[in-house]
Amino acid sequence: MHRNSTTPITFHRPGRFEVAPRVGNLHEAAPDIASLRQVMVNVFFIGDPGGSDWTLVDTGLAGSAGPILREVAKRFGPDARPRNILLTHGHFDHIGAVRTLARHWGVDVFAHPLEMPYLTGRSSYPPPDPTVGGGAMAWSSMLYPKRPIDLAQFIKPLPNDGTVPGLPEWRWFHTPGHAPGHVAFFRERDRALIAGDAFVTTRQESALAVMNQVPELNGPPAYFTPDWNAARESVKHLASLNPEVVATGHGIPLRGERMRQELHELANNFDAIARPTRGRYVQEPALTGVHGVFSVPPRTMLETGIIAAAGALVLAAIVGAVYSRGGKNS
Question: Average pLDDT in the 166-195 region?
């Protein structure tokens, strides 16, 4: 039986948090909100299962189009087509399948105007910072894709009045810090919040935490956050909404009073809980504008050393492979 927006969802409590139930490959944050995890990042379907009026939020990593289309067929029907695609921001793990899906469905893609330089090929984001600590995900961030994508034929700016195209009950809020044009989506009726990466419900810097998906409230993924003061203010803004359920770009959807308490604690003690103790952007943010990035702080000595060490390892691997091949051919 298909759920609709009046069918209740029963969260379960494996630990201190109320966690969204899993239905097949999805976590259902609300009867008409489901998240699909693609390796390490979530995409969201907004709309009643079996209905024809629905929206996709974010598109996961490269190669995610197939899994997304399979879930769409199961949830909405084999020929289902969304009203549009919404982007919380344009980092590589949120736009991997956007061009394929926009072309397949023939739909518009909406994002904040300050994300346009990174979504129309004009500017790369500020460089990631592998020195922020926390685990393997942070250390490997210097290997993540950095080049902008060109969605000029599909992309449109979100309306200035905060309305969300195709979703009349929802509002969008500008939540910069993790990305210049990062946005979150909120529905007052049930206080449902799709927060993107403004904050997350797993420790995204740690590969072990990502693999196990243990629920915990954290700030934005630190290795890709170039403005910590703006990130702090964004978390405060979202906490002030007192959401009942939160669905984030990384981690499992959570709901309830304990979630709200920890979200307020994160907002009130953001610098102690979320802000790294070291890193390129900790004291000085990257400067961005309508044309993209125009100034970034210099690399720290630690970051320079990490990059040099990584380069030496790559060179050693290449030399070793060459000598190994030469020995086999002699």
Answer: 98
Sign of the alpha-carbon torsion through 222, 224, 228, 231: negative
Nearest residue to 36 (alpha-carbon basis) of 221, 28, 213: 28
Other CB atoms within 10 A of residue 1 CB: 6
The rounded distance, in Å, linking the Cα atoms of 228 and 220 is 9
pLDDT at 324: 56
How far apart, in whole angstroms, are the C-alpha atoms of residue 76 and residue 238?
30
Residue 94 lies in a domain: yes
The structure's pTM equals 0.90
Partners of 109 in the β-ladder: 85, 155
For residue 170, which of 270, 106, 247, 224 has the smallest C-alpha distance? Answer: 247
| 279 contacts 109 by C-beta, under 8 angstroms | no
Residue 299: inside a domain: yes
Domain residues for 296?
A: 18-323
- For residue 5, being part of any structural domain is answered with no
Strand 192-196 versus strand 245-248 pairing type: parallel
H helical segments located in the chain: 65-76, 98-105, 116-119, 136-139, 207-212, 228-240, 257-268, 270-273, 301-329
| pLDDT tens, residue by residue, 225-244 | 999 999 999 999 999 999 99
**CA 330 to CA 255: how far, in whole Å?**
65
